[in-house]
Amino acid sequence: MSGLKLRGIRKSFGAVEVLRGIDLDIEDKEFVVFVGPSGCGKSTLLRLIAGLETISGGELDIGDKRMNDVDPSRRGIAMVFQSYALYPHMTVRENMGFALRFAGVAKAEIDRQVTEAARILELEPLLNRRPKELSGGQRQRVAIGRAIVRHPQVFLFDEPLSNLDAELRVHMRIEIARLHKELATTIIYVTHDQVEAMTLADKIVVLRDGAIAQVGSPLKLYDDPDNLFVAGFIGSPKMNFLKGIVDGSVVRLPDHGNQTIPLVAKAAHGSEVTVGLRPEYFKAGGASQLDVTVEMVEHLGSESYAYARHGAGDVLTIATQNDRELKGGDKLSARFDPAKALLFDPAGQRIR
Amino acid sequence: MAQAKLGRSEQVTGWAFVAPALVLLGIFMIYPIIWSLWMSFQVGKGMNLSFGGWANIIRLTKDPVFIRALVNTCIFFVVQVPIMIVLALLFAVALNDPKLRFRGLFRTAIFLPCVTSLIAYSTLFKSMFATDGVVNNALIWLHVVSGPIPWLQDPFWAKVLIILAITWRWTGYNMIFYLAALQNIDRSIYEAARIDGIPAWARFTGITIPMLKPVILFTTIISTIGTLQLFDEVNNITIGGPSDATLTLSLYIYNLTFKFMPSFGYSATVSWVIVVIVAILSFLQFLIARDRRPAA
Asked: Selecting from 3.40.50.300, 2.30.110.10, 3.50.50.60, 3.40.50.1240, what CATH number does the domain A4-225 have?
């Protein structure tokens, strides 16, 4: 068993509290992604789990064992760093085998382990090279190989793809997903890239200002966000937020020429709300509509994004699949299903 | 045409800017170096010189004082450089630990000796290590020794004193190089090693030392050259004594030129001996520290 249990985890650096009580359960063999904007504490949380920082308060269990004060090397974890952190003076083979030398593993066994890891990661032709003779993607694979040979219960990844170019990032993302299947271990992965989070995770933990904003499967967070922050953070392009005022059974949109849409959740008459509409919620045949003027269009081929507004209102992003003729200045009646609209109270919490 | 003209005038300007430095370098460095090489083949006293061929080199092999100075210099170099390099490394690693308190104070304290004047500290060492100086008094008071150590009178202790002095003076200087190099090492390499369960000693010998290798090579060569040219300390603290026990090659050159009946040719020969030794040792050190790739 190699699940993790975090209870009330806190971390302060001097007077600054970086993590303010994290409660989280991570199942065995689960792929969990911590995601959030920079400074939200996601890397710090990972470093607390790794044992690179001391926990200021709360309890950390890895596989039913209290790990708060256990040395990093005895937590059954392995970590892959953003900077790869390879030993520059050692060959790929030595990099991967270095830890095993100090774990009392026989030389023949080290060789076997390293060869096996190299096979999984397709590093065999590079075993006698030094890190400086490798490309970014190869270095990252060596860093992963160094983690694999230790057979950890839990893999920790700290923004592993941030230093790679876009194409390689997509490639390595698939590699890591494949690796997770092959190794069948728990993975905790930190990223600020919500696409990485969506594509890799079994479970996403969205962090904001040192607290958990929401935990859930990628599609759960996408379809059913608990608050404005998660709604805005997950999904690309971003969800549209429209200021509204509840007016009986409709929501009036003062910034959009007082157009109205049906009220889909319980909210008091006269209360202020925020209406959330994802760009792809706009579809022909929807029961509601917003009349807007297109300002600019981005054609991506498979779909187009129209940036449009009503009068001086906020710009809305509208995704269209079959409107290749659309151009700036066009009038558009953007139709959508009002049942899909999300409502948030002034504090940013979801109204269901 | 216009461009070529411009190019020529630019060249003239360029050379005009470099010329003063070149002239000064030529007069005060290159000319004396070449002249000293010529001089090393001259024999005779004072200005009464004549060409002697290999005579000076033959004289070297038969000169017991030269051999003495050479052996002394080698002892200083062989004993002192490793001690200082290891000390500087240990200080640097200790002072690089962010958990250490008063780091700035310690760094300054260890570096300070190398900005003090050579004469001032030599004079101070001489008085501190006198038979009734503070060092002996302190050692007696602490019951480390029963009687005063003859720092300046005994050939062995005089060497120890010189080694102590130059180590005190130069350790901080070398430490600064190591500190700078250490601060350039990505911290996550050490974090990765901690997670990998590499013990602290192995992180030092297996990661820190290999990563500092180029700097260690540099400081070793610089220190070797410095020790082979050792002059100020021995001239001020022991004056080469007692009975030439701390006489170094540099001090011997000085004596040959300015203290004894001037023997310019012979002292130039001794100077070139230092040059040759430095060249050989530096070459050897490069050879030892060369980046050896494991057989693929």
From this structure: 3.40.50.300
Phi, psi of A274, deg, nearest 5? -115, 130
Q: What is the pLDDT of residue B139?
A: 86
A93, A151, B158 from A108: Cα distances, Å: 13, 17, 54
Going by CATH, does the domain composed of A240-351 fall within 1.10.1660.10? no
Helix (H, G, I), strand (E, B) or coil at A15: coil
Q: Which residues of A touch B193 (CB under 8 A)?
A: 87, 98
Q: Which two tokens stand for residue B107?
A: 């760094």
B198, B213, B294: residue with CB nearest A99: B198
Tokens of A224: 């059913």
CATH topology agreement for domains A4-225 and A240-351:
no
CA distance A114 to A301: 45
Q: Which residues of B touch A46 (CB under 8 A)?
A: none
Query: How far is the C-alpha of B57 from the C-alpha of B61, rounded, in Å?
Result: 7
How far off is chain A from B288, nearest CA to CA, in Å? 16
Residue extents of the structural domains in chain A:
4-225, 240-351
Contact B161/B150 with Cβ under 8 angstroms?
no
Helix (H, G, I), strand (E, B) or coil at A60: strand
Preceding amide of A237 cis, omega within 30 = yes
Task: For chain B, list the domains and their CATH numbers.
Answer: 2-39 (no CATH), 63-289 (1.10.3720.10)
Q: Measure in Å the smallest separation between the Cα of A77 and chain B Cα atoms.
A: 8
**d(C-alpha A249, C-alpha A52), whole Å:** 54
In this prediction the ipTM stands at 0.82
What would the pLDDT profile of A146-175 be if each residue is shown by its tens digit? Answer: 998 988 999 999 998 888 888 888 888 998
Residues of A in Cβ contact (< 8 Å) with B294: 91, 128
How big is the A-B interface in CB pairs under 8 Å?
63
Distances (CA, A) of A22 to A62, A186, A205, A213, A266: 15, 19, 11, 10, 31
Q: Does A14 touch chain B (CB under 8 A)?
A: no
Q: How far is CA A326 from CA A295, A298, A334, A337, in A?
A: 10, 10, 12, 21
**Taken in order A73, A75, A77, A81, is the CA torsion positive or negative?**
negative
pLDDT, mean of residues A56-68 = 90
Backbone φ and ψ of A116, nearest 5°: -65, -45
Task: Please name the amino acid found at residue A216.
Answer: G
Return the axis-axis angle of helices A136-148 and A166-183, rounded to nearest 10°. 20
b/e per residue, B164-176, with b = 16+ CB within 10 A? bbbbbbbbbbbbb
> Could you give the CA distance from residue B47 to residue B265 in angstroms, rounded to a whole number?
10
Direct distance between the N- and C-terminal alpha carbons of chain A, in angstroms, rounded to an integer? 37
pLDDT digit string, tens, across residues A236-277: 889 999 999 998 888 998 888 888 888 888 888 889 999 999
